[in-house]
Amino acid sequence: MAVAFKSDQQSVARALYEIADCHFGAGREEEAKKTLHDLLSRDLKAGGWAGRRRQTNWNARARQALHWLDGNSLNGLSLPRWTGCRAFPEPQKSEYLDKYTAAPKVSVKAVGIAPDDARFRFFRRKLNLRGVETPEKGGYPVTVALDPAAPVDKPEGYTLKSGEKGAEIRARDRQGVLWGLVSFLQIYDWQEKRMRHASLEDWPDCPQRGYLGRCCVDECEFMLFNKMNITTAKPNFISQGIYTPLNLYKTKCMAKEFKDLGLELYYGFAPFTMDLCWPLCWNVFLEMQVENAKIWASCGVGIYYPYDDARYWDDVYKQEDKDTGRKPSDFDVEHLLKFYNRVKAEYPDFKMEFCPPFYWGPSAGHPYPDDRNKYLKSLQKLPEEVSIFWTGERVGSHRKNKAHRDWYANLIGRKPSLFQNKAGPHYYLSYVLDEMPWDKWFYPGFAAEDMRSIQKNSDTPEDYPILTTLADYLWNVNGYDRKRAVERGLDQYAGKGVYATLKPAYDKLCQVDGYKYGRIHSGVLHEDLAAWEQASKEIHEATEKAREIAGPKVMRGFGSWERAVGWFDGVVKYIRNPPDYHKKYAKPYAVLKEHLAKDKKAAYDESKGDIFIDPLYDMRGVAAEPYPSTKKQPILPTSSVAACFYENCRARFKFNVEKVPAEGMKLWISGVSTGYPKKFVVELNGETVYDGANPFFVRGGQGAWTTVGFDLPAKNLVKGENIVVMRNNSGSGYPIWVEYAIVKERRDAAPGEGK
Amino acid sequence: MKTNLKIALLALPVALLALADDKANVDPDLPLAPKEKKNPYLLKSDPPTAIFGIYSDLNRIRWLTVPPDSTKGLDQKKCDEISDTYIAHCRKLAEEAPEKDPKAADKWAELGWALMFRSRWDDAIKAY
Asked: Which residues contact B77 (CB under 8 A, 6 or more apart)?
């Protein structure tokens, strides 16, 4: 019954939306609006999951259309929410005084630029929406001059001086004018309707600043107040070529916002490129692409042409090779040139970004049957204005290296555009308040001189908070302050005090990172339940308080915050009722005991007081889970000294000693290394007792369990509780798995004996 | 959406394959077009892209029902024939659906969408 009911709501929502689409197609805009409002007023459950398929969210589609139909353009987020009367991102040079002049009315005088320019329309609109009148004359005067002799001689640069008698903005280009106006709106005191006295001399360091997102109606407004100027909407309103009247309308409205304000907007063309897996030697492929691209260009959007991960899939390249005797490195560029030139011929403003199959390197290799250098070099034939993406040394690399960048730039014959993957610090997600180390990842000169554009691969609006930090960094590289960026960016986006409200909760929330999403491990056996429950309570209280300030729209998908809170609660549930691992892994434990019985090196003998360290109940690692079964090895419960997501990842355990033996003790560890962690460290009570090569890796014998002995010197042992920590310092993602450990008095070998 | 997919899966192969082979209107004695001229991807998948509904399916199918070396897609008249066939099919499914069938609404909606694709706005609204 529940399913049928839900299905009905979904159907009704779909019908109403599509009726509105028909009204709009027939030119009956008011009827369309009425129908969409009707749909939203019914509060139908439309969207969500039906089995394994995600149902279309018709409410969201209706809200998108109404965003423009109801005239809410550039104000969906109501930015700026709170700036403390300071410009954002941090200006290059700024001086603020604690003086203000009343400005309940603001008049604009344009010099060298049309007074009805979209930049002024946006400026007046923002003022008017908050009750500030903008008469042609009178009130607080703002002179805006597009002047080739303006003081800042840099692209998009401007000066802004505001004082008792008015304000003056001067810039050498239109984008400088725009950023000057945005800074005015940020410095303006909205509560008291007065203008702060300030002097700014400002320009961006990075020429193209932005992100790849998901096509929200608020993208343009968000970018304006973060002074970004490029975005790529991978999925978008017309992704699949569904050119209904409302989809085309939304696309045109969005494109117009960007174009009017001099910002760049690209729509992802993937459904017409690699998703199809059509051979490139087919004429129809090119014709189909050109026909669709012209529709897109007519709406005013540029095209992001990805031809990357699927380029060599489905054996399409083999068919091409068979039919033509040529490889993608021979003819992809010819296809791209024909495509670009034909669309450009009809739409001179048309722009294109391209992502080749070889978008990373040079150190990380590639699996494709083609010549990477030859392919990339062939792209030099593309016109200079075509932007080409690069993700860095690897697909998900963070730190950038100049030699790597130069290698790529020299091959493609232009500055690359960065496609920054996996930037979120919590399993690639962001928890809103992350102090992003952009300044650590990007070498000096990377953003300001070496790159054409820098875009973070994002989910919007979820990633808006983290994007504010990127905006701050890219605008003023040397002035970047991680904490200030997140605090000010967040308050501008979500409202005054959201940062302060969430910060204590954030610090607690981050402890959930010990449990990767959806993966509960034996760490729950060792957690302090009361502390987790208290933390959960505080996190929920802070979240509610932030919701009151920010409102439900902002909190929806708020930098994965709520997702993390949900997962935190999930972990608490498991801490409260941990699994019985001996029961759950009865068979693996039986195998472990067999191994132990046969282990002549460790020679475990309980009767002699040897201490057995259980991998799950006694060891506390990051991910103590069964070691994955292979043909050679059975599944075993293990403690992982993993390095997948943490630097210096560790596992530890405790054991008790009644009397410290004069000759010390021996620690035997049975472990396996599936990859190449180079180093392994053992610490006893904070002192390093082993720091050397990874002894568990046997070249050519991966997957073989190895027992290794380590000395525990008497001088480091204490009577009572002793703590052993095992570290894997590779930081590269390869784990060392520990099956068990034995601690025993030295009865056997000489000190220093290894495996 | 599930219903949409089913309808599309049912309707499009019939309409498309009939058109691709032109069996309905072709003299059986005439030789068939050489097989290598056919687009292998049309026959390989079932149907090629009947996932996103009539808009995107027809958008692609007009290029998949012509030889790969063509510089033009299927002509408009034939495209209209496909969508007419599809509309008739949707109408039949909708009209035959029992009134209490919880998925009947989806069937009428699919008809509406098919009519919308042909810019028959008021007919589409009636279907909804």
From this structure: none
* DSSP SS3 for B50: coil
**A577 pLDDT exceeds 50?**
yes
pLDDT at A751: 40
- State how far the Cα of A180 lies from the Cα of A198, in Å rounded to an integer: 12
A-chain residue closest to B111, CA distance: A15
Domain ranges of chain A: 2-69, 93-202, 209-477, 502-576, 581-745
DSSP A428: B
Predicted local confidence at residue A634, as pLDDT: 41
Contacts of B119 in chain A (CB under 8 A): 25
Strand A140-146 to strand A106-111: parallel, antiparallel, or no bridges (unpaired)? parallel
Chain A positions in Cβ-Cβ contact with residue B41 (cut-off 8 Å): 277-278
Q: Within an 8 Å CB–CB cutoff, is residue B60 touching chain A? A: yes
Tell me how close the Cα of B81 comes to any Cα of chain A, in angstroms. Answer: 19
Nearest chain B Cα to A4, which residue?
B102
pLDDT band at A680 (very low <50, low <70, confident <90, very high): confident
Give how far Cα A525 sits from Cα of A288, A534, A581, A644, Å. 58, 18, 10, 22
Residue A568 has pLDDT above 90, yes or no: yes
Residue A220, min C-alpha distance to chain B (Å): 27
CB < 8 Å to B47, chain A: none
Q: What is the mean pLDDT of residues A296-324?
A: 90
pLDDT tens sequence across A628-659: 444 444 444 555 443 333 335 677 889 999 99
**CA-closest candidate to residue A258, choices A219, A295, A285:** A219
Minimum Cα–Cα distance from B117: chain A residue: A244
Contact A25 B59 (CB under 8 A): no
Nearest to A25 among B66, B72, B121 (CB): B121
Whether the pLDDT of residue A5 is over 50: the answer is no
Question: Across the interface, do B68 and A284 touch by the CB < 8 Å criterion?
Answer: yes
Contact check, Cβ <8 Å, B60/A7: no
Task: State whether A284 and B59 contact (CB < 8 Å).
Answer: no
Give yes or no for B56 touching A (CB within 8 A).
yes
Rounded to whole angstroms, the Cα distance separating A257 from A389 reads 25
Alpha-carbon distances, residue A367 vs A274, A305, A313, A320, A420 (angstroms): 17, 21, 11, 18, 21
Distance in angstroms (rounded) separating the CA atoms of residues A457 and A83: 26
Distance from CA of A528 to the nearest CA of B (A): 46
pLDDT value at residue A111: 98
Asked if residue B52 has pLDDT above 80, the reply is: no
The predicted-structure confidence for A75-113, as pLDDT tens digits, reads as follows: 999 999 999 999 999 999 999 999 999 999 999 999 999
CATH code of domain A209-477: 3.20.20.80
A8 → closest Cβ in B72, B105, B122: B105
Q: Is the ipTM of this complex over 0.90?
A: no
pTM over 0.90: no
Predicted local distance difference test score (pLDDT) of residue A277: 79
**Of B39, B52, B112, which has the smallest distance from its Cβ to A240's Cβ?**
B52
Of B52, B63, B73, the CB nearest to A242: B52
- Given a contact cutoff of 8 angstroms between Cβ atoms, the answer to whether A44 and A59 are in contact is yes
Asked if the C-beta of B50 comes within 8 angstroms of chain A's C-beta atoms, the answer is: no
Domain A581-745: which CATH number of 2.60.120.260, 2.40.160.10, 3.40.640.10, 2.60.40.2550: 2.60.120.260
CATH topology for A93-202?
Chitobiase; domain 2 (3.30.379)
- Rounded Cα–Cα distance for residues A675 and A698 (Å): 10
- Residues B17 and A118: their CA atoms lie apart, in Å, by 51
Show me where the domains of chain B are located.
2-127
Q: Which of A11, A21, A50 sits opposite B116 (nearest CB)?
A: A21
**Does the pLDDT value for residue A194 go beyond 90?**
yes
